[in-house]
Design brief:
Layout lengths: L2 E11 L3 E3 L2 E15 L5 E13 L13 E14 L7 E14 L9
Parallel strand pairs: 4-6
Antiparallel strand pairs: 1-3, 1-5, 2-3, 3-4, 5-6
Length: about 110
């Protein structure tokens, strides 16, 4: 188990899925890293995490695109070959979420 903490913005949210007796919400979080390259250019690199939150139905409605969150959970990676370019390997970071902390306020009309 690799427990990691990261902060980013929710980029997409899938519909709640029923898996046996459990409910899961899958969503993506983008984490930006800002730095200056050797040539002086400002650079932003974005790392995406595919997140799964299980059995937290009270929290699901607050996880919306654009919401800034801090996530703590078990992170793993997987890789696959791009269907359009067989020479290109794609790495995917996944996170089974333990805790979610909201960094941006949820507006009353969003509740």
């Amino acid at each position: 188990m690799i427990v990691t903490i990261f902060t980013g913005n929710i980029g997409s949210v899938k519909p709640v899925a029923q898996v046996g007796d459990s409910k899961v919400l899958n969503f993506n979080v983008a984490c930006d890293k800002h730095f200056t390259a050797k040539n002086g250019d400002k650079v932003t690199e974005t790392t995406w995490f595919e997140c799964s939150l299980w059995n937290r139905e009270k929290v699901f409605p607050f996880l919306k695109v654009g919401t800034q969150v801090t996530i703590q959970g078990d992170v793993s990676a997987r890789a696959y070959i791009d269907k359009e370019d067989a020479k290109k390997a794609i790495a995917v970071l996944t996170c089974t979420v333990d805790t979610v902390e909201f960094q941006s306020k949820v507006k009353a009309e969003e509740k």
